[in-house]
């Protein structure tokens, strides 16, 4: 290995105790899976010890099992800390040592499902779980639809709260557009959507966000539309910031406009 030559001189002279000093790093062909994380060190007292690449602590070389646990569990304090903060660390040969984080996996799955408009049961599949455990990550555990739904809703609530806080600080006007439409394929449901548009003052970039998307039951009267939009404006604290609201020319929208005109 090209990298083993530089390791030979790494931290030679480092001591574990006052009487125990590293004389040299011994190249080893032992179990690579384990020894990629440790240096085999010859000590001044004649013993041989394994030194962790991350925390620099010394361990007995015979105990493959405990050496493995040190970086896999991980018992290593440095790795544990990195896993907690969700970082990957560099392994001895420059390869990224991956720290699996169950919470992060769940969050990324929820994001994926939202962004790709997938059903909540997308990962709710024993065969998928087996495939991941067998080929990608043995510590992966089955994620059911209820968990994924909960995670998605939490992400949505957080994003909504972020947008509310953003609008609070925004020092420019916001324009709304709204429409009501029926679901296709003979489904009886209708939906109401409100989008917000504004110019980001710092960059002059045109911005847009969907701030309301809801199932909208009959009757689709002007008053019902007005109530929904009014509530939405209150939720996002946009009352003082509305410049324009655009609708299509349906007659119920005309009635909504007169309601809105009275209030805003
Ligand atoms: Zn360690």
Your description of this structure?
This protein is α+β, with helices and mostly antiparallel strands. It folds into three domains: 96 residues, no CATH class; 70 residues, no CATH class; 91 residues. It is 39% helix and 24% strand. The chain is built from nine helices and eleven strands. The strands form three sheets. It has a five-stranded antiparallel beta sheet, with no helix packed on it. It has a four-stranded mixed beta sheet with strand order 10-9-8-11, with helices on one face. β8 and β9 form a beta hairpin. α5 packs across α7 and α8 packs across α9. The radius of gyration is 30 Å and the shape is elongated. It starts with a helix and ends with a helix. The N terminus is likely disordered. Zinc ion (ZN) binds next to loops.
What's the number of domains?
A: 3
Radius of gyration: 30 Å
Give the structural class: alpha+beta
Major sheet: size, sense and barrel closure? Answer: 5 strands, antiparallel
Bound molecules: zinc ion
Number of helices: 9
Number of beta strands = 11
Along the chain, the helix and strand elements come as: HEEHEEEHHEEHHHEEEHEH
Strand content: 15-25%
Average pLDDT figure = 84
Low-confidence stretches: 1-9
Termini separation (Å)? 73 Å
What is the strand arrangement across the widest sheet?
1-2-3-4-5
Share of helical residues: 25-40%
Label the overall shape: elongated
Oligomeric assembly? single chain
